[in-house]
Amino acid sequence: MKEVLEELTKYAKKLVDSGLVVGAGGNLSARSDDYMYISPSGFDLKEVTEQEWVKVEIASGKVLSDLKPSSELEMHLECFRKDSTIKAVLHAHPTYSVAVSSTGKEIPPMFPDFPAMVKKVSYIDYVIPTTNLIAEAVGEVIADSQSVVMRNHGVLTVGTTVKEAYFYMQLTEEAAKVYAISSAVGNPRILTEKECDDLRNLSAETYRSSLLKK
């Protein structure tokens, strides 16, 4: 449990420092046996201490801490309930990802790391945040997705570690940024499906992926 809380605290700060969330926006959680620990509601993620992560029973949704959990609690629970291999869930509001997705477009693969590491990105239309509706929409696609882009809202990523989920968040935002900038300059070249498959099969990328799970 202590290791889980240390990882959450570490990557909560990283989310803020990297500009993926602003103020009290965003939330993250991690599984620990039959429970999850999630960021408390209303807190600046950079200021959450190891003692302030909210413990919640995954099966029942029962809150076992004094602090109120993130308002996106149901969305996190849905991810853990849908797939037992998911150990961490991150939700942020990255600028370029929100901008690109709000146009109705998808974030295309334009550089090797994105398709090699993030195997599947799913998209859901705008749903009112913090409701069961958004939890259900995410739940429908999360089993085979590493990243879920919520149009006009943000991005949710999952992983077997908090580090892995954070890396997926970084790559999704970087891909959106590259696409937005290149589209402003001219007509961007997008990697073909074959090129993406070739990248996914590289032994170097497989090794790098394995490091994120430790």
Strand order of the largest sheet: 3-2-1-4-7-6-5
The total strand number stands at 7
Which structural class do the helices and strands define?
A: alpha+beta
**Could you state the order of secondary-structure elements as H and E?**
HEEEHEHHEHEEHHH
List low-pLDDT spans.
none
Q: What fraction of the residues are assigned to beta strands by DSSP?
A: 15-25%
Distance between the termini: 16 Å
Range of helix content:
40-55%
Mean pLDDT: 94
Integer-rounded radius of gyration: 17 Å
The description of the largest β-sheet is: 7 strands, mixed
**Helical run tally:** 8
Overall geometric form: globular
What does this structure look like?
It is a single chain. The protein is an alpha+beta fold and 214 residues long. The chain is 42% helix and 15% strand. The protein is built from 8 helices and 7 strands. The chain has a 7-stranded mixed sheet, with helices on both faces. It is globular and about 55 Å long. The chain starts with a helix and ends with a helix. The model has no long low-confidence stretch (mean pLDDT 94).
Features of the shown structure:
single chain, 214 residues, alpha+beta, seven-stranded mixed beta sheet, 15% strand
The gist of it:
By secondary structure, the chain is an alpha+beta fold.
Explain the layout of strands and helices.
Layout lengths: L1 H16 L9 E6 L2 E4 L15 E4 L15 H10 L5 E5 L2 H8 L10 H5 L3 E4 L7 H8 L7 E4 L3 E6 L2 H24 L7 H8 L2 H10 L2
Parallel strand pairs: 5-6
Antiparallel strand pairs: 1-2, 1-4, 2-3, 4-7, 6-7
